[in-house]
Every structure is written in structure tokens, then in C-alpha cells.
């Protein structure tokens, strides 16, 4: 349940302490003292409104309203802003988000007007957390940036640690795990210096959540355990319940369903006692998920129904999306007898699941959860296909493919941009080193010339200069080679998405036209292909044998996809040791792909793709030919051949790295078809 990450930040506002019951008892006792000045009475009311927010928000709301009345009567605007803030906080804990937003905005406006910076920071901090819970991350980040700007001018490490925690939580939800981890580590370091143990525990829990997202459950449980031990049995009720729910979710994912249920029940009891509706719904959904995994569907459906009734009163888009998606999956997997016992019509199974998944999809779209939207669209497509409603299934599957390409495209784009940024930084650094070295070399040569002219004459200077020139040239060559390697890494990163996306499109078409068994066989081959690509993506050169095996996998997938079959012919010089001859990875694939997609797919007859590799002297001669439609067939004018463009650039860099570069590319026409002559340097283990 991804929305749990932001519940962590609800643990504390800027004056959080432990043992709320003892504190509230003490404050209420002082409030009953006779003759209490209004200023002290007002301070006690706002404190009680704050402390009750964590344990009993309905009571906290009553104290906040009393504080507002008294502050308004006495024209005490700073305490009034604080009372607005705490009234909003109690509404938030009760799940009444619209009212909470209204009162937070009133608190911020009043604090800004009176230049009460501390009050403004506190209200904006809480409002940012609320927007996170509602899935409005852009608004949350905007507010958080304002908070960080204000805190930069305040020497208050206590609130700074909390702000860092909240900033990290937003990046965690956006799946920027390195940045999230960095903010949480900073929060953990800042909290003890400020004497803020609660913020340190929150940071520990959030660090555990990052490691969980990164697929390191053991490390996640280690940090969760440290945080739970820190809270102790008398710790903040909602804080403990949030942590227990996170641990339970991780146990459930590991298949430890009984342990997960035990923790969910403990958290549920705490949240019920505190009247924390969002937490109650979260724990009921978690329990339903665990019961479903244990095939106890009656108990699972009861939990789902109770969670649904609560979320009707306390809207939470993320929570509803998770609930309905899990509920729909349980209905689809539930045996007929258990489904009937739970009150469902066995014949209406798919429609019930479809309706729930449709609701989940709507909430996923509202929250802009693209990955969840993609999964739910695929789920709905599978249901319609199982009902033989192929037109709707096709439309849903097209939406799924579009969303999948969007999700994968964003991931690839982010990965590429990060790599490109790193490349630019590396390249600039290397160029800077080269310029400095050239400058130093010129200075050294001038000084050396003067010294040698005075001491040893022209002959000694000549010898020295020749040696310096040799060293300088060698160093410059090494630096230029490093720059070229950085450029080559970026080109390989561009090549892989090009290869992968074309293969994924082939899978999409295949799934819509073939049965499940063949689709599974196709996907298993694609998985092998992906593994090979990932293994080679970081390599500069790979054995020719591995390149041919990877290319063969790709061609097998295309042969399964194509309506008109074609032959793939490979002829390798028998004198060539393919396991000890090295070439750049994926160098042949763009040309084979062009032959299949733009040649054979447009041909009216069965065809072939022929790859021939021979060694001639110190070069490797490779030809790729097909008998397809040829280049005379008009291409889409808006389409550019990125594969060909990238390969030409790779060959240029390959030539620049070798003293006698032989890499070259020639495209020629056949009758029918197209041929490509690719010349590469013959690179062996000895060379």
C-alpha cells in the first residue's frame, strides 16, 4: 500500500512529545485551577488541542474551538493562528480533509499577515502532509519548498529535522529513492542535535520504507525494529500503529501472513481507540489482503466491506484505489463456494470484479498514479477478454500499452537523462583536466627551455622537449579516450530503449492474437532476451558468439510474431573463433530489425534475412541482406532511423579510439531487398 509512506509524517507536528495521556491529564488539571489568567488559559487550550490530535481528535477539536473563541475575544492573533492550525490538524486526523484544508489556509493567511513565521511554518508543514495523503504531490512539494525556505532563515534544528522527513516522504512517493534516502538520513542526523527523538524515530521508519521499496526487506525490517523499540509501549499511539502497519505490509509481502495479521490487529485496535478513521481503513484493507493470501475469503470480504464503509466518510483516493484493486483481485481468485458464501453471485463474479477495478482505476487517475493505472487497465482488459468481449478488450489493451509505454518511457527518459548529465559532467571534467594539463605543459616547457639554454645548451633541450611531447601526447590520448568512452556509454543507453520498446510492441500485438500458452512461451523467450541485453548494456565489447545468440533470440521472437514467415540464415567463417572475437554489443540488431519491419513485413512473399561474417586481414566483414520490399517503398516522412544514426556514431567513436580505424558502413540496394555492408576492426583477446 504505497499511501502508507505519507502516514508516517502525520506522527508529529512541531511540538510533539511522548506519553500523551499523562500530559493531557496534567494540562486539564491546570485548566481547572480558579483565577487562571486568560493568556495561560489560552495556552493550555491550544496545547490540549494539539496533544489530543494524536489520541482523540474529536476531543482535540473541542479544545481548538474553545481556544479560537477566547483568542478572538481577546484579539490575540498569534494564538488564534495556532488554534486555527490545531483545529485543522484534528479535522485531518478525523479524515475530514476539506475542512482541514480550509482551516490550514486560514491559519497560514493570518500568520503571514501578522508575520508570525513559526505559526506559518507549522501550518504549511501540516498542510503539505495532508496534500501528500490526498495524492496531490505537486502541491505538497510547492508548500514544502516554502517551508524549507523559511526554515533556512531560522536556527531551529528541531523543525528542520521534521521538514527534512516530510520532504523525503514526498520524494519517496515519487519513487526518487536516492533523494528520499538522503533527506531521511539528514533528518535522522539533525534530530538528536535538536533533542527531537520522535523525529529521529520517524526518520528510522522512513529509511526502512525506502529499503523496502528498493527490494531490501531485511534491511527495512532492521530499521523498523529500531524505530519500534524507540517508541516503546507508551509511545505515540498513532505513531506505533503506523509503524506496525508498515511492518505488517512487509510481512505479508514476504508470505508471513499470520505475523502480518497479528500486527494489523494491534494497529487496528490502537486506531479505533484514537478514532483515526484513515488508519482503521488502512488496517482493515491490509487484513483483507492477508486473509485473501491465506484463502480465507469470507474474512477478507468482511474486512474490505468495513474499510469501504469507513472510506465513504473519510475520503482518501490512494486508500480507495488500493482497497478496490485488492478486493477485485480477491473476487477473481475466490473459489465458487467461498464466493457464494460471501454473498456474491457466482455468475456475476467478473462483473463485480470489473466494477471494483473500474472504481480503483478512477481513483488511480485522480491521484495520477500511472503505474497503478496501467496495472488496473491490464486487469480490466483480461476480464473482458475472458468474457469474449474482444472489442472492449482490444480497446483496454491499447490503453494499457499506451500507459505501459508512458511508464517505461518516463523511467527510460529519467535513466537516460541522469546518465547523460553524468556524462556531461565527466566530459567537462576531463576536458578541464586536458586544458589544465596543456597549460601546465606549456609552462613547464618554457621554464625547462630557459634552464636548459643556460645550463646545457640546445642539444639537451631538444632531447628534453621530445620526451615531454611524448608524455603530453600520451596523456592527451588517454584523456580523449576517456571522453570517447563516456560518449559511447550514452549511445549504448540510447540503443537499449530503442531495442526494448520495439520488442515490447511485438509482444503487445502477439498477446492480442494468440493463446495463453503460446504467449507464455513468447514471454519466456523475451525474458531471456532482456536478461542478455541488460548483461551487455554496460560492456564496451562482447564476444561475437554472445552477440549472435542474442540476435538469434530476437529473430525467433519476430518469426513468431510475423504472419508471413521468413528464414534467418547465418554464415560465419569457420576459421573465426566466435568465442574469442569481440564486437560492440547490439551492433547487428538495428539492421536485422529494419530488414524485418520495413522489408519483409511489406513483402507479399516469404523471405529471408541473411547474415554473413568473414575475416579479411585485420578487419571483420559483415553483410546483412534481405529480399524484402526494399528502400523504394515510401517510409513515414515523420520517422527517423535512429538505429542507423546511432550505429554510425558508434562506428565513428570506435575509429577514434584505434590508431588504424577500419569501422565503416555501406547500405546498398538489391533486386529485391536491401543489403548492408558493415566493416569492423578484428578484435581478439591477443589484440
From TrEMBL:
Q: Name one Pfam family in it.
A: TPR_12
Single Gene Ontology MF annotation = phosphorelay sensor kinase activity
Database matches in SMART domains: TPR
Q: Mind telling me which residue stretches traverse the membrane in this protein?
A: 445-464
Record's keyword annotation contains Cytoplasm:
no
Which InterPro entries does the UniProt record give? Bact_2-comp_sensor_kinase, HATPase_C_sf, Sig_transdc_His_kin_internal, TPR-like_helical_dom_sf, TPR_rpt
Signal peptide residue numbers: 1-19
Q: Which UniProt keywords apply?
A: Membrane, Signal, TPR repeat, Transmembrane, Transmembrane helix
Q: Where are the TPR repeats?
A: 161-194, 201-234, 241-274
Q: Quote a single Gene Ontology cellular component term.
A: membrane
Q: Which residues form the Signal transduction histidine kinase internal region domain?
A: 487-565
Would you tell me the protein name for this molecule? Tetratricopeptide repeat protein
Q: Which organism is it from?
A: Chitinophaga japonensis (Flexibacter japonensis)
